[in-house]
């Protein structure tokens, strides 16, 4: 568990000078290295010590604890107290640059333009100084802006890290009752989405104050030049604020709908992926394809609305400045004033600045503050949830176990409850003493309080009255096995140092030696997501081994024997519980009678009350029949489950077996001998398995990917329209400025002779002025329309691309072989439909359109500037070349850094999820601090990668701005050096356009990098659209009507090899199953039982031949084969949607037939009580049905399909005996003339079969009638029967003999 930091080099940031820090030049060596080679993780350095997770969290936690002492604590105030000093530096810089530099620059520009209007040698030096001031203002602006942004982001990082860490530490202390008010998903959402609000807010927070001040100063300057006409523009400017807010509210509503519809689609896709094996076996691909198509269609309607709303908003935003200028200038001219160049370009510069700050940054800062306030309250609500308290429990956590004369556990009149005040006590009036070394069996029906009793011993639930005292350390093996993504060995050690002898002993007594030999990497095998690489029995034994290795005094074992077969259960009880833990105190929850009899004492619970506590003989003598008690209460619980619709937590099946009464120490001699050999017997693979990474293409995105995206989104007409609209609208955009400058040039010439009069009688306005007004109006209107058409065509192309790419990837996914879903993690597949598809749907279009606009704007600006002096096109070309060089260096570096940032981010959320899922285990083993320290390491690694990512981006911005400043210097120098013949309007336009490059260019380069980064999602989607499909679903084979008529199945020299493996699982399988025959299949773990099912349904293609009623399965389509067989799987699968669709998705049966099937499986009354009856909506995974109900749904499906072949894959392994009996009875009554193939662990399930197939290592070991098989005393089948215990073995032999009669 104790993983090291992935970044080990000392912080380079801490060693840098202050200037290097604020201007991010400390990342330059990374740029240089990125040009030569691919950057490796070891090239990165640790985060700054001032950003250390523990330091930041401790500071916030200290202030939060102070707030908690108040009557009305405020988490926001605690945050401000902790980090206020970090924001002050940035705020001062933002205020200076926006309120002073931005407003003084137009004043100096006016002096320069005035010189061009009235050239004079006397004023030349003064004009040059002002031109230098214009350039200098831009230079000082970037000198202030980048450090200000740097400071803001540093502050945001500190707050985000502190918030997340504080929430993680809180999660480790959460009381179980808190999970009624929150969920794992909600906590992760707080740590990702809510906390990220601060990142966005810090950058623009200063504009809440700076923007209004800047507006007041800017409007005053405008007033000096055009008088009160500036207030017309101010009114329109202010109207844009509520207009943007209104648009924002509409967009939020649409976005909320999109989010809900996306969640629905993703939930369906998730269910499809998880249930893909069953979907393929049922041949239901078409039904789910239609389901997704309809869900996607509804989603895309809202995405289209959101996209076009965004297009309209962008168009209006782009021309907002033109509209404001138009309203002021037209009014000004119509009132008889001349439109001079200095007035036009001073006002234009100020309005362009205010348009951005007042209509975008200011309202966004207010909106983000509001969102942040909500997020802050949500985090505070989480931090105020109930925590675990020590209550009345006294722990003596020492290495010295309790003395023989004192109890290991002492409970006095203890009442316990999950949620105080909301429910009756879960445990009521328990009193008992447990001596050191005793084995206590805890029994009771489902819901009796067995697991709750263990939780009370670990202080996981509220103790309302009474006391619990424990002497010694605790180890816990949970009923639902818990593991984290690490090696099998790491999961056993659980943070403890490795001790070879003890480790191998634990492996041996938990019956894991054989498993480790079968695993390719031995104990270095990765356990994977939720232990998915292990079987249920292996996960249960792994959990038990972890408890043993912890070397505690008291062991709490929550039903560890139910998930394993009889042989393994017997091994674990004798070697592990009876011998290895003989000196320890063991509390064992179990249902298996052969083990209950061997317990020192038995605690019988019923509805949370202590029904009895004593030895087996004492309880029997008291008149309590333990066997009858368990069977009766079990049946009552099953009836209760079948009469309700809410899912109940069900125990694993109760196995009623008895064994010879042997002492707990009877096998000690043999076990000691075997344990001494354990270490040498365990086969540990020398190499360690590593998590397989996704394939990543190196270098830039291929041009083929861009072309595929464009092709997916547009035909020739749409593409042509998009290109033409982009060119025409951009020409109109710049021509309007050029025409306006020409207008001012004419006005300046007209007023040259009369410098004291810029006002004429409005009644005597020259016709030329009227024409100018009309032309200007026409240009502004057509420019607006052009932008709308440009936006609409571009976003339409993106929408079509999204639709087509999604359809393509989903179709290919549904046609992929099951081996793909077995080898690729579910999360990785889902990532294509969640994150990648979300980027293609919403983020990529916006970034690509932004890039489209900026590229056109930069080219247009260079052309317009060159109109003043043609040779200025050369420095523009040089500038673009430099920009492309820096961009190339940045892209190569940023690509690697972003990948490492993503790599460092994933463990944070995985660690949180794993922690929340295993809280009880973590706290029982007292490893909370180990997990916290691990979180610190993960968070520090992410902080380091995130900050270097941001710093490289900021360094890019500085480089871009310096290049642009160099270009502005050349433009200004050229204009001032060769001013003769240049008119004021032309000079003003050249200056204004050149000044606009700063900021815009760096944003364009960042957006180009962002587009390339987001195109990776397109690449990943296209990658999945090339997956190799299964065989055809349909064929031209002409097989008989109503095939198969008999259900005869012949395996002819069948070999089956799974993908990625060289050794076959089924080896030369030859057998014949007659039509209508009932066949049972048994064998040890790994014998190949389920592989027969895989071969039969063609889930994996075989070597050899399988024929059904004379038809070779390979000659027909997959749907034609699979639709003719029915299956009841081990894990019952139900899908979200109507109950009817879960039974008959293609509407092939009428209501009467469906009700008849439900009646046969005893679900008719249950469904009648449901709201909507057959239209009752099942939740995700059928979560609102019990396990038994879902299994009966699967049986009803088989009844409705009416196929001649039925396969049961351990269908009753996870249900109680009552449901098992019901399923077997229904099958006997309704599939009498069908071929039934049953794979089972429970021998009583298949003992009455016509014949039983016994597999061993993929070969047929035995295949005969049950009666004949039990005569073979050396056979595997006879040995399996003997493992069930003497009484059950005799019962099974009697049943087998009965089949002969």
TrEMBL record:
Annotated PANTHER family: ATP-BINDING CASSETTE SUB-FAMILY C, MULTIDRUG RESISTANCE-ASSOCIATED PROTEIN LETHAL(2)03659
TM annotation in the entry: 87-104, 124-144, 201-220, 226-246, 307-334, 784-805, 846-866, 872-890, 955-979
Bias kind Basic and acidic residues: ranges: 638-658
Coiled-coil residues: none
Keywords, ordered alphabetically: ATP-binding, Membrane, Nucleotide-binding, Repeat, Transmembrane, Transmembrane helix, Transport
Species the sequence originates in: Dermatophagoides farinae
Name of the protein: Multidrug resistance-associated protein 4
InterPro entries attached to this UniProt entry: AAA+_ATPase, ABC1_TM_dom, ABC1_TM_sf, ABC_transporter-like_ATP-bd, ABC_transporter-like_CS, ABC_transporter_C-like, ABCC4_TMD1, P-loop_NTPase
Residues covered by the ABC transmembrane type-1 domain: 104-370, 722-1013
Membrane topology: Multi-pass membrane protein
Family: Belongs to the ABC transporter superfamily. ABCC family. Conjugate transporter (TC 3.A.1.208) subfamily.
Molecular function terms, GO-annotated: ABC-type transporter activity; ATP binding; ATP hydrolysis activity
Pfam families to which the protein is assigned, alphabetical: ABC_membrane, ABC_tran
Keyword Cell membrane: no
Domain ABC transporter: start-end pairs: 411-632, 1049-1282
Region (Disordered): 638-660
Domain of life: Eukaryota
Gene Ontology cellular-component annotations: membrane
Gene: ABCC4_6
Location of this chain's protein in the cell: Membrane
